[in-house]
Amino acid sequence: MTQPQMKVLLESDWAAGSLVDDVRRGLSQHPRTLPPRWLYDDHGSALFDEITRLPEYYPFLAERSILEQHAAEIVTASGATTLVELGSGTSEKTRLLLDAFTAEGQLTRFAPVDVSEGTLREAADQIAAAYPGLEVVGVVGDFTLHLAHLPKGGRRMVAFLGGTIGNLYLEERKAFLGALADLLEPGDSLLLGTDLVKSADRLVAAYDDSAGVTEAFIRNSLTVVNRELGADFDQASFSYVPFWDPHMERIDMRLRSEVPQRVTIPGADVVLDLAVGEELRMEISTKFRVSRIAAELEAAGLAVARVWTDDPGDFALTLAVK
Ligand code: AVJ
Predict the structure, then answer these.
(1) How high is the pLDDT of residue 247?
(2) 3-class secondary structure for 133-149?
(3) Which of 109, 253, 303, 313 could lock onto 82 through a cystine, CB 3.0 to 4.6 A?
(4) CA-based radius of gyration for the chain
(5) pLDDT by 10-residue block (mean), the chain, 322 residues
(6) Cα of 49 to ligand 1 centre, how many Å?
(7) In sequence order, what are the residues at sequence separation of 6 or more whose Cβ sits closer than 8 angstroms to the Cβ of residue 98?
(8) Predicted pLDDT of residue 82
(9) Can you tell me the distance from the alpha carbon of 9 to that of 4, in angstroms, rounded to the nearest whole number?
(10) Rounded distance, CA 41 to CA 33, Å?
(11) Contact 42/118 with Cβ under 8 angstroms?
(12) Among residues 175, 206, 179, 162, which one has the least CA distance to residue 66?
């Protein structure tokens, strides 16, 4: 097999440096916030993998069923010769697209992009082995920082799956879509996965599962800050309080301080005095309406070509072209 190429755009101390910045900036906001990137160390990535297998976590199954039913149409509509995947993780569902591309015979290159080097290398090796003749170029990078370094040439489809765009705040989403639209060439496209608004009961169940895996996943951010920056967050004094915000149409995943307490984060030179009941916002997961997805894509300079949803209408895949 041809070995995958790897482009490493993150310096070895990137994680440490940007965690310090994020802790200083995020934890001084109101509510105090940490960017979701810090959920995904090796343990967090394994927990997320477990989330995708929970019965309550419908987005994974919903998106997979769309890909199972429509991958061939997506591939034909894109006309792509290069597939770029942002936040690729294990690229598990992407194989449905790669299979369809293989059947159609036009794809020459696959470029998965992820911050997690270990996960990316493993995925790139497996895909290079499974799809002989496909040039695999892994990019270790942050899709909010390194869009300018994506492979150029050919007709590209950029896949951004899983509903991950919902983890960005509105301003971040605008900046991200605008930057992405600017670097696409005419004929290039974006395949965007978004979770859709539905009953609050089902939404909350998906982020507050009975096995407690999502809670462990969210709490892992505190463990990461303790380990990386020598902090003394005490898990037992926080409770997990996710809720559906009907105004912002997003799940808001918080940890609430159950006692008045002081937390020290030596590696960031930060001391936090938390009041009883004070909440840390660890992640948001925005849910969309099809009309709003189109409006945001069009505001960024992209034109919606097709929208696919699963049968119950839980999740959407939108193909937008430059
Ligand atoms: C796949 C990253 C979009 O928001 O549903 C799952 C992350 N967080 N459970 C999502 C997540 C808590 C997930 N994303």
Answers:
(1) 98
(2) CCEEEEEECCCCCCHHH
(3) 109
(4) 20
(5) 84 78 95 92 90 96 98 97 93 95 95 90 95 95 87 96 96 96 96 98 98 98 96 98 98 98 97 98 98 97 98 98 96
(6) 10
(7) 83, 107, 110, 127, 130, 131, 134
(8) 97
(9) 16
(10) 18
(11) yes
(12) 162
Q: Cis link prior to 186 (omega < 30° from 0)?
A: no
pLDDT for 163 equals 97
Q: Which of 143, 285, 288, 317 to mutate to test the pocket of ligand 1 (most atoms within 8 A of CB)?
A: 285
**Which two tokens mark 224?**
């990461």
Distance in Å, CA 164 to ligand 1 centroid: 7
Q: Please give all residues whose beta carbon lies within 6 A of any atom in ligand 1, as ranges.
A: 51, 59, 162-164, 166-167, 207, 214, 217, 283, 285
Alpha helices, H only, the chain? 14-26, 42-51, 58-78, 94-104, 117-130, 170-183, 200-207, 213-229, 290-300
CB atoms within 10 A of CB 280: 23
Collapsing DSSP states into helix, strand and coil, what is residue 57? coil
Check residue 54 and report its DSSP letter.
S
Look up residue 245 and give its DSSP letter: E
ipTM greater than cut 0.90: yes
Residue 205 in tokens:
């169940």
Torsion angles phi and psi, residue 221, rounded to 5:
-60, -40
Rounded to 5 degrees, φ, ψ at 260 are: -70, 130
Rounded to whole angstroms, the Cα distance separating 161 from 191 reads 7
* Protein residue whose Cα sits closest to atom 3 of ligand 1: 164
Q: What does the alpha-carbon distance between residue 272 and residue 270 come to, in Å, rounded to a whole number?
A: 6
Q: Which amino acid is located at 192 in the chain?
A: L
